[in-house]
Design a protein that fits this description.
heterodimer, A: mainly alpha, B: alpha+beta, Peroxidase, domain 1, 2 domains, about 65% helix, globular
Chain lengths: ~230, ~180
């Protein structure tokens, strides 16, 4: 509507301008010599009051504001025809173009508005996704830390129990070796003692001693029958 | 397998009976029992001797020569029996023959044979003491088969009918060694 109003005003202005041009043009072409004279006359009207009558007649013949009807009317008719034709064929086209331009501009504005809204929406969406991703990353890091701490604790416990097991086994092995060494030593001592005792006894026995021993064991010996 | 054992037992019995009959007739039944033990111990104690006497690739005469030379002091009836066993390849039955002979000899002589091992030789007093003690226990006369073994250091080892009494000094020392070894 605003565009139509503006176009109307523009057309009115053009019409007035055209009318004025039509009025001025014959006056300008009809008395070209009179113009300077009129100017000179107007310039000297105050200076020369003696030629007042000639001056009045000249003024009436060359007044640019009063149109010459013989020329004005055809021109007006022509102008009106032109106006009619323009109004019939040109005005719709111009209006159409203007409307189209208005529509285009409107659509562009709407499109830009929609794009802006979409962009803001996407921006918000991406911001939300980014925040969510940051949150998830923080959660993952926290979980990983927690898992790492748990694994660390498990490994430490396992290592400690293994170390204790190794120590216990080593102690048991040491103890066993110690006992075996003591047993071996005892056996060696016993063997040596018996060997020495046997040699001492064997060397120290006379025949009479042998016979006494035989008699002694014979008296203590049991029965030879199966019962 | 059972048939083989039966045949072996029967063969051993035959050898024992024949040997006993010959030895009893010669009046050396008791001595032969000791000599059988000695022969058995000698053959068992030497792998080379056993291999030579049991080697069928070796001529019989050679094997018989080894036996005659090795056991030269034995009773002739025993030497003859050993020669036959070598000839027939039955020297592996010597152990069974010895056991069978012992049982039959004890019955034939109506006496129990006791193996006595000492570090020194027995005198008559000790022999009588041993015979007296075990004749009463076994219910018949006792004949001693004496063995000298200085390794027992002292004391006496008696065995008869599968029962053994070890009253030697070395066994006493061995007991002491075991006790010392086990004590903590």
């Amino acid at each position: 509507m605003k565009v139509c109003k503006t176009a109307g005003r523009l057309m009115l202005a053009v019409l007035l301008a055209a009318t004025l041009m039509c009025a001025l043009a014959p006056a300008a072409y009809a008395a070209p010599a009179e113009a300077p004279a009129a100017v000179a006359a107007s310039a000297t009207v105050h200076a020369d009051t003696a030629s007042g009558a000639e001056g009045a007649a000249q003024e009436e013949a060359g007044n640019p504001l009063i149109p010459n009807l013989l020329e004005f009317i055809p021109m007006l008719i022509g102008f009106l025809l032109l106006l009619l034709i323009l109004g019939k064929f040109g005005w719709p086209v111009i209006l159409g173009m203007l409307d189209k331009r208005v529509t285009t501009i409107k659509e562009s504005l709407e499109s830009a508005e929609n794009a802006k809204i979409e962009g803001e929406r996407l921006l918000e969406e991406y911001r939300a996704q980014l925040a969510d991703a940051k949150k998830q990353a923080a959660q993952i890091i926290a979980d990983a830390k927690q898992s790492g701490e748990a694994i660390k604790a498990d490994l430490a416990t396992q290592a400690q129990s293994e170390a204790e097991s190794i120590i216990a086994k080593a102690r048991a092995a040491t103890e066993a070796e110690k006992k075996a060494a003591i047993a071996g030593l005892q056996s060696s001592v016993a063997d040596l003692s018996v060997l020495v005792a046997g040699r001492i006894i064997g060397q120290g026995l006379s025949e009479a001693d042998h016979r006494k021993i035989i008699e002694h064991y014979l008296s203590e010996a049991g029965a030879l029958d199966a019962s | 397998m059972p048939a083989d054992r039966a045949l072996t037992r029967k063969a051993s019995a035959v050898y024992a009976e024949v040997l006993l009959e010959a030895a009893h007739a010669a009046g050396v039944a008791f001595e032969v029992s000791s000599q059988l033990e000695q022969a058995q111990a000698a053959i068992r104690g030497s792998i080379e001797l056993r291999s030579a006497l049991l080697d069928k690739n070796l001529p019989v005469e050679a094997r018989m020569g080894i036996v005659n030379e090795l056991f030269a002091g034995f009773a002739p009836v025993l030497l003859a029996t050993l020669s036959v066993m070598v000839k027939r390849g039955d020297l592996g039955l010597l152990g069974r023959v010895s056991e069978a002979y012992l049982v039959r000899a004890e019955d034939a002589l109506d006496a129990s044979f006791i193996d006595v091992t000492t570090a020194i030789g027995l005198d008559d007093t000790l022999r009588e003491k041993i015979k007296e003690k075990y004749a009463a226990q076994l219910g018949r006369d006792v004949l001693l088969r004496e063995h000298l073994d200085p390794s027992i250091i002292g004391g006496i080892v008696l065995s008869a009918h599968g029962v053994s009494i070890d009253a030697s000094v070395v066994s006493q020392l061995e007991n002491a060694r075991v006790v010392l070894s086990r004590s903590q």
